[in-house]
TrEMBL record:
Pfam families: BTB. It comes from the Eukaryota. This is BTB domain-containing protein. CDD domains: BTB_POZ_ZBTB_KLHL-like (cd18186). PROSITE patterns: BTB. The lineage of its organism: Eukaryota, Metazoa, Ecdysozoa, Nematoda, Chromadorea. It comes from Pristionchus fissidentatus.
Length: 167
């Protein structure tokens, strides 16, 4: 049974405080730590006694959106043009729930090519997307198209070998 998580107000005081680009994000350390080994190490590792933790190399808006994607249902924050961006951030911060939201978005019909979807599934280990996309390569023309696309060079050596064997 699916339960909708309550919305999350990032301005309401919590037990953790992230500072991103000089702006404060109030977070629940236990909740973030349960979702992410990155945040678990951050909050309960070397920095465990700090009340404010500065986050670098991420924008305030991106961190705010990531946290919202963790707690709320995904909205139009994820689309064809930024799905790879969100996958990179989800991977960096080990936020599988965000990667799952992106994967679900990629499973829907979109303007992205099957080649790019295959590469994203391969690169970010999105098994459900991969198992949905691979059967689309039963036609020889799709395999030839993939081989001639810029996405082919970005596939893992294992995926390239699999696709070569398939052709």
């Amino acid at each position: 049974r699916f339960t909708v998580r309550p919305s999350y107000d990032l301005t309401e005081p919590r037990d953790g405080l992230l500072v991103v680009e000089g702006k404060k994000l109030h977070v629940n350390m236990q909740s973030l730590s349960a979702q992410s080994s990155y945040f678990n190490a951050l909050f309960f590792g070397e920095l465990k006694n700090q009340s404010m933790i500065e986050m670098k190399e991420v924008t305030f808006q991106d961190m705010k959106t990531l946290i919202h994607l963790m707690y709320d249902r995904p909205d139009d924050s994820i689309n064809d043009s930024n799905s790879e961006h969100w996958l990179k951030l989800a991977d960096r911060f080990d936020l599988k729930i965000v990667a799952d939201h992106v994967q679900n978005s990629l499973l829907a019909p979109s303007s992205l090519s099957i080649h790019k979807k295959l590469r994203l599934a391969d690169q970010f280990n999105l098994e459900k997307l991969k198992s949905t996309i691979l059967p689309l390569y039963n036609k020889q023309e799709n395999l030839v198209e993939l081989r001639n696309s810029e996405e082919f060079d970005k596939l893992s050596s294992e995926m390239k070998a699999y696709m070569s064997k398939k052709s």
